[in-house]
Amino acid sequence: MLISQSRLLDKIFRAMFAPIGVALIGSGIFAREEHLVSAVPPDRCYIVSLLLMRSSLPISAQPAFIREALQAGKHVLSEKPIAKDVNTAHELLSFYRSSIAVDRISWSVGENYRLVETHVFAASEVQRLGRILGFRGRFNRDIKPGGKYYETAWRKVPEYQGGFLLDAGVHFTAVLRLLLGPQDGKLKKLSAFTCQLQKHLPPVDTANATLKCKSGASGVFEMSVGSTFKGGGFSIACEDGTVTILGDSVVTADKNGHESVKHFKSEGWGGVNHEVKCWAEGMQTGKWNPRMKPEEALADLEIVGVPDVRNFGR
To answer: What are phi and psi of 290, to 5 degrees?
Structure first.
C-alpha cells in the first residue's frame, strides 16, 4: 500500500512539474535577445504541461503561422503588430473567434509596453484623477542605415503600410490607449498628416495626428522615426490634475500644482518578461490577461495603420 502511494505521488509530481513545450517560431534579433531569455526565467518554474507556440516573424509572414498553430491545438503568443494591416487583422481575429475552440486554445498578442510597470502605474493615476480633459503623446527616433534592426531585408523593403512607423508605432499607441482607459480609449475620429522625410524609410516615417475619443476628450499624437527630434512621452490632463510619463518616471500633479514623482527601474525594451510571465500564468490558471487579447492589438493597429482620416465605428 505504501509503495503504491509512493508511485502515485511520484507520477503526480512528474506531471505537475513537466516542462513547458515551447516552439519559438522565428529567430530574429529581438527573438534571440529578448523573447528567448524571457521564456526561461531562472527564478520561476511554471507548473504547466501544454504545447504552445511563440511566434516572432516578419510582420507579413506571421498570420499564416498563427492560423496553422491554432488549428493544431497550440496556445499562441504572437508578436505585435497583430498583422500588416487592419483588414488582415480583422480576418485573422474572425477566424480565431469562429473556427477555434477559444475556451481551450488561446491566442495572445505580446504587446510588452502595455505591461511595463511605469505605464501601468501611470494609468492607475489617470483613473484616480477623474474625467480626462485632454492628452498629448510623442514618440521620436532617428533610425539610420547600418543599425542592426534596420539591416533586415523585411524592414528595409517593407511589404506593409507604415514600415518602421507601424512596427514601432503600435508600442506607443498601446501606451496611449492604456493611459486613456477602457472608456476614453475608444476613439471616435482620427485625422493625420503623414509623410516620408528620409529616403531610406519607405513608405512613410512620420505621422502627426489629432484624435477624438467617444467621450468627447481630444488630443494630439506625433510619431516619427526619421526626425531629428529626440525622445518622447505622454501627458494626460484630468479633472483633478495631470499625469506625465518621462522615461522611467511618472509625474503626478494635482490641480493646485503640487507634484509627486515616482521612479521605476529601467526595463530596457520593457515588459517582455512580464509578457511571457502573464502568458505562462494564463496557461496555468486558465485566466488570460485581458491586456494581451488580440482585440487590444487590433485597436492599437487601427490608430497606426489607418488612412489619413478615419471614423471609428466600434
So the answer is: -65, -20
Sheet strand arrangement including 259-263? 259-263, 249-254, 241-246, 226-238, 132-142, 218-224, 206-213, 187-195, 309-311
Alpha carbon 80 to chain centroid distance? Answer: 6
Mean of the per-residue pLDDT values of the chain: 82
Dig out the grid coordinates for 178 from the structure. 492604456
pLDDT in tens, 221-232: 999 999 999 889
Q: Provide the edge-to-edge strand list for the sheet that holds 107-110.
A: 21-25, 51-55, 75-79, 107-110
DSSP state of 35: I
Sign of the C-alpha dihedral, residues 4, 6, 10, 13? positive
Residue type at position 269: W
Task: Report which residue type is found at 83.
Answer: A
> Nearest Cα to 302, choosing from 226, 228, 209?
209
d(CA 183, CA 170): 19
For residue 84, give the amino acid letter.
K
Element containing residue 5 per DSSP (H, E):
helix 2-16
User: 203: cis peptide before it, omega within 30°?
Assistant: yes
**235, 242 in Cβ contact below 8 A?**
yes
Closest Cα partner for 19 from 280, 259, 276, 304? Answer: 280
Tell me the mean pLDDT in the region 301-310. 70
Rounded Cα distance between 152 and 313, Å, is 36
Q: DSSP letter at 120?
A: H
Q: Which residues, at least 6 apart from 90, have a Cβ–Cβ distance to it below 8 Å?
A: 298
pLDDT digits (tens, 9 = 90+) for 81-92: 999 999 999 999
* Total number of residues shown for the chain: 314
